[in-house]
Design brief:
Elements (H helix, E strand, L loop, with lengths): L5 E2 H8 L8 E2 L1 E3 L9 E4 L12 H4 L6 E4 L8 E3 L3 H15 L3 E6 L4 H12 L5 E3 L9 H7 L7 E5 L7 H9 L3 E4 L13 H8 L11 E5 L5 H10 L3 E6 L5 E5 L4 E5 L2 E4 L7 H16 L22 E7 L2 E8 L5 H13 L7 E6 L8 H13 L5 E5 L4 H6 L5 E5 L5 H8 L4 E6 L6 H6 L2
Parallel strand pairs: 3-4, 4-5, 5-6, 7-9, 7-10, 8-9, 10-11, 11-12, 12-13, 17-21, 18-19, 18-21, 19-20
Antiparallel strand pairs: 1-2, 13-14, 14-15, 16-17
Helix pairs in contact: 3-5, 4-9, 10-11
């Protein structure tokens, strides 16, 4: 049974409206397909569609409410000048009434995986709300915050950006008690002069941290000292994680991983030894440590987490009667996440299998695109990856720099996969797919 999210009285107070007090609502939506019963639908105009097209459909259910900016207002709709701004207003009210501990995450890669890990582990300590999927922009963050229930004990939000000022805008809505910067890398670098510009943009998350809040930083990151200076200027308490000397230190031997937490050793059951996953565990432990949680409750938490589709999840599939182990990391790609994926892939045991990489374009790199795609080839050439198939236009720079023995095919788009690349795969291949989402590989491989 769903818990009431908003009463009619609350909605009337936020929007200065007069809907009947008999109503209550348990869901806020910006996608009409998510509205079933007792939902509030914000009809927002996006780049590709206008939510006003679906208002009639939503209001067929007499328990639903629509927030509109055009069309005829009725007893179950509220007309405002700007529906996105109205969503922000409701999100702001939601944050104001909440007594939950709020955690906000940003960084160049690893945000969504860390968010899911935190969501899973915090549930052991109380009701937890987590932003869905990768809802981390000016639509997704207010939508996620507006769905924070007054009964929630914890809220976990992901804050993304592609240019300066975006995180500042989002964090002042979320107002986290704890903020995390996973790492700094050249994602969206086309909108910045250099990576230091990205560092400063990510550091905007500190602008909205609540009084006596905490910033959690990766001690191993190249920009740690820069971020530390910003935090110190703002008098924000810092908690660190990493393989180097830090508050929560990752210690790794040949067969075991353990964590040194303020000079005490903690062992957790872990099957996945990927470096990025270990960083996420360490950041998660930082959050629980700062909340004074009993860390022994987390001992079995890190083994059974399901990796979401397109973020490195593995599954056995059949392609043209050939058994293939698919590692689907095709939802997003930038130089940092690609390097991490290649590194983890190269560590994997082969067992008489071939390692095959299907690589799509990395986007939003601007004038540096050629350099970063060529750099990817230099990294791949040092690994035990057997064949590389490149899909897109920018990856031609990667393909040209690959060793001849590693070259598979270079094709323009996903239409060439089935009849070209799939024919060249062999039985028992391990296939890693890595690409920016817009290339289409995520939707293509989601069908398998």
């Amino acid at each position: 049974m769903k818990i009431k999210l908003y009463s009619a009285e609350e909605i009337n107070a936020v929007f200065n409206s007069n809907i009947s007090n008999k109503f209550f609502f348990n869901k806020v939506a910006i996608d009409s397909r998510e509205v079933s019963n007792r939902g509030i639908f914000f009809a927002i105009k996006g780049d590709n569609d206008d939510g006003h097209r679906y208002v009639k459909k939503v209001l067929k259910n007499k328990n639903n409410l629509a927030i509109i900016s055009k069309g005829v207002k009725n007893k179950r709709s509220i007309k405002t000048q700007n529906t996105l701004e109205s969503l922000r207003n409701l999100a702001s009210y939601s944050r104001q009434r909440s007594e939950a501990k709020i955690i906000a995450i940003t960084g160049s890669c690893g945000k969504t995986s860390l968010k899911n890990l935190l969501n899973s582990s915090l549930k052991k300590f109380g009701r937890t709300h987590c932003s869905p999927k990768s809802f981390n922009n000016h639509f997704g963050v207010p939508y996620s915050l507006a769905n924070l229930n007054s009964n929630d004990k914890y809220g976990v939000f992901e804050l993304g950006m592609s240019s300066k000022g975006e995180i500042d805008n989002l964090v002042n809505l979320v107002k986290p008690h704890i903020a995390i910067i996973t790492n700094i890398g050249p994602a969206h670098i086309e909108n910045f002069k250099n990576i230091y510009g990205i560092c400063k943009a990510k550091a905007e998350i500190m602008n909205g941290i609540s009084q006596n809040g905490i910033i959690i930083l990766n001690k191993d990151d190249k920009f740690f000292n820069s971020l530390k200076k910003i935090a110190n200027k703002k008098n924000i308490k810092i908690l660190t994680f990493g393989f180097s000397q830090s508050d929560i230190q990752i210690k790794k031997s040949l067969r075991k991983v353990f964590f040194k937490i303020k000079n005490k050793i903690f062992h957790f059951k872990i099957k996945n030894f990927n470096k990025s996953y270990l960083y996420n565990i360490a950041a998660t432990i930082c959050v629980h440590y700062s909340l004074n949680h009993n860390l022994s409750y987390l001992k079995n938490n890190f083994n059974n987490l399901r990796i979401i589709e397109g973020r490195g999840n593995e599954k056995k599939i059949r392609i043209k009667n050939k058994k293939i182990l698919l590692i689907n990391d095709s939802y997003n790609s930038n130089p940092m996440s690609l390097n991490e994926a290649i590194y983890n892939f190269s560590l994997r045991k082969k067992n008489n299998q071939r390692k095959v990489l299907i690589m799509g374009d990395m986007l939003e790199l601007g004038k540096r695109s050629k350099y970063y795609h060529q750099q990817a080839a230099r990294i791949i050439n040092k690994t035990n990856i057997d064949k590389v198939y490149c899909i897109g236009s920018e990856v031609r720079h990667t393909y040209k720099k690959l060793n001849d023995s590693k070259k598979g095919l270079l094709v323009k788009d996903i239409s060439f996969i089935k009849e070209n690349i799939f024919n060249l795969l062999q039985n028992n291949d391990i296939l890693l797919v890595k690409s920016s989402n817009r290339i289409g590989l995520f939707n293509f491989f989601k069908k398998f």
